Amino acid sequence: MFTDASHAEWVAALLFGLALVHTFSTQLFANLAHHSKHHSGFWHLLAEVEVVFGLWAFVLIASLFLLSSPSEAIEYLESRNFTEPLFVFAIMVVAASRPILVTVQNLTLRVASLLPVSSSVGVYFLCLSLIPLLGSFVTEPAAMTLAALLLRDRYFDQALSNRLKYATLGVLLVNISIGGTLTHFAAPPVLMVAGVWQWDTPFMLSNFGWKAAVAVLINATAITWLFRRELTALKVAETSTTQVPSVVAGVHLAFLVGVIVFAHHPPMFLGLLLFFLGYTEAYKAHQDRLILREGLLVAFFLAGLVVLGGLQRWWLQPTLTGVDDTALFFLATGLTAITDNAALTYLASLVEGTSAEFKYAIVAGAVTGGGLTVIANAPNPAGLAILKDSFKDGSVGAGGLFLAALAPTAVAGSLFLLF
Questions:
Q1: Other C-beta atoms lying within 10 Å of the C-beta of residue 35
Q2: Digit-coded pLDDT (tens) for 306-359
Q3: Is residue 19 a contact partner of residue 53, using CB atoms and an 8 Å limit?
Q4: pLDDT tens digits, residue range 102-144?
Q5: Which of 7, 351, 355, 385 sits between 20 and 30 A of 257, alpha carbons compared?
């Protein structure tokens, strides 16, 4: 495509590295924005983690204009597949609507009432266990949106300790990443290989799903027990006081199902989204503000990752070959933290003649490492976009998130490696 592909690839790798450094520096920029008198807006822009990859993707395209030609740069941009960013935007907007959220909240409260603990403890546990596992059926981005909104409204908006906030975020991201592996269509890294390797839901459930479910329950139980006193002290409503007509809730659920069913067909799910926007305008009394801004920022982040990641194959694919299966698992877990688990498994699917052990190791490692950083798994930016305002300076520290995700990542990795 490019007249000098090696130059383009090296520039793309350099810009990808700068984007990673920028991602881990957002808290620094947030501090600068807080203390700057004249350029706070600029520093605040750089502190927005959702802007990072879109910004550096723009720099990449501008560089390709100079390295090759405008036509070749545009051709590369048009060759990228932006279905996933568009889908995440659509599912975030629909799933975060008040009727959907109230329905999920009421269901969660009913299940929590059956547990031998207080409502505040029970709902917290279900937000980190039941909802991530539901991601195998409603897709991971939808599960992330619902869990993050419930956690924000019932817990993060209160005076939680910083330690609990980071620990919760770490467990949430890890559990969402592994919780979508009960089926073959809900987790992005699984979806990338399921068709090529002929993996179906029974295969996923027997090889990945039950292990993921056990890990999710262990992680959720451990953090709930560890912070049980702080959670018990919180004053949260025992029952939902918000009511939404069943017909309105049913229509919203129908839109949600439609977007999920047509997740791989942008004209269909974007058309449904437009109809959904019209419906919410007609029934404003039963709506809160739609998270259009948050959804667009997350889509911008993922689109930037698609553009930057498209020229990383030259070093990623050779890295995945020539190592034993156990080493490949750890390699995949580590690479996921600095790339994207779906991009990683997609590149692995292009390697011919791989063994069943290779395929298992690469996917298990990819989903295990999906909670270590904001870029490790496609739904992660959605969760951070919803919860970040509850943190100091409205920014989540990359180092704090990494440390918080280490223990639940270790639990997931142990299950996938030992069983």
A1: 10
A2: 898 888 888 887 888 878 889 999 999 999 998 889 888 888 887 878 899 999
A3: yes
A4: 998 889 989 999 999 998 999 999 999 999 999 999 889 999 9
A5: 385
Q: Where are the alpha helices (DSSP H) in 233-338?
A: 246-261, 266-282, 292-309, 313-320, 325-338
The interaxial angle of helices 398-418 and 325-338, nearest 10 deg, is 160
| Radius of gyration (C-alpha) of the chain in whole angstroms | 21
Q: From CA 212, how far away is CA 209, in angstroms rounded?
A: 5
Place of tokens 């996923």: 204
Between CA 216 and CA 319 the distance in angstroms is: 30
- What tokens were used for 370? 């999906």
Tokens of residue 138, six digits:
């409603």
Q: What angle do CA 153, 159, 162 make, to 5 degrees?
A: 100
Q: Whole-angstrom Cα distance, residue 181 to residue 204?
A: 6
Which tokens hold the place of 87?
């889908």
pLDDT at 195: 83
Q: Are 323 and 362 in contact (CB under 8 A)?
A: no
Residue type for 258, please? G
Cβ-contact 124, 224 below 8 angstroms:
yes
Q: Could you give the count of Cα atoms lying within 13 Å of 348 in the half-sphere of its Cβ?
A: 35
- Give per-residue pLDDT as tens, 228-278: 999 998 876 555 556 788 999 999 999 999 999 998 899 999 999 999 999
Q: How far apart are CA 367 and CA 341, in angstroms?
A: 7
**409, pLDDT greater than 60:** yes
Cα separation, 208 vs 318, in Å, equals 26
- Residue 413 has, within 13 A of its CA and on its CB side, a CA count of 23
How many Cβ atoms are within 10 Å of 318's Cβ, its own excluded? 10
What angle in degrees, to the nearest 10, is found between the helix axes of 356-368 and 341-349? 170
Helical pair 40-47 and 26-35, crossing angle rounded to 10 deg: 160
**Contact in structure between 263 and 113 (CB atoms under 8 Å):** no
pTM of the full structure: 0.85
Phi and psi at residue 324, to the nearest 5°: -75, 170
What distance in Å separates the CA atoms of residue 350 and residue 368, rounded to the nearest whole number? 21
The answer to whether residues 368 and 338 touch, using CB atoms and an 8 Å cutoff, is no
Alpha-carbon dihedral sign for residues 244, 246, 252, 257 = positive
